[in-house]
Structures are given as C-alpha cells and as structure tokens.
Write a structure and sequence with these properties.
The chain has 82 residues and is mostly helical. It has one domain. Helices cover 60% and strands 0% of the residues. The chain has 5 helices and no strands. It is elongated. The chain starts with a helix and ends in a 16-residue tail after the last helix.
Length: 82
C-alpha cells in the first residue's frame, strides 16, 4: 500500500487508506450486480448500469423494485381460496 500512496502523492492526489478502499469497493458493487443480472437486457441494462454507477445503492434499490418479477395473478395475498 505504501508504493501506491507514494505514487499518488507524487501525482498530487490524496493518499488512500483502508477505509477509503473499502468504501470504494462497496460503492462499486451495484453496477457489477446490474451487469450480471438477468432482470434487464440491452439498452435498459446500460441505463441501469449508468444510474447505479452514479447513484449507487439508491439506484440499485430502484432497479430491484422496477424489475421485480410480476405474479401470474393466480395467487393473491389476503384473499381466501374458493
């Protein structure tokens, strides 16, 4: 990690520590999840990738909500059978 910090300091960039590395990894997970998901395809997947890249977990929650599986209407919650 010291070599990376020395290189960053030489370029005038801020020094990285373990906490910022963990935060960067956590914030980069939603776009990866969208890329490997089967819920969307084509241009829709690209749009969700861009949104999750910018807004991270907030856009990923929207992605999961919008692309949720719809029921076929046979079983309805809260209704009695028969």
């Amino acid at each position: 990690m010291n070599d990376i910090n020395a290189m960053l300091a030489g370029m005038g960039l801020p020094v990285l520590d373990e906490a910022s590395l963990i935060i960067a990894i956590v914030l980069s997970l939603p776009p990866v999840f969208v890329l490997f998901s089967k819920r969307a395809s084509g241009g829709t997947k690209v749009l969700w990738f861009i949104l999750t890249s910018i807004f991270s977990w907030l856009a990923y929650a929207g992605y999961l909500y919008v692309t949720r599986k719809k029921g076929n209407g046979e079983s309805r919650a809260g209704t009695a059978p028969g």
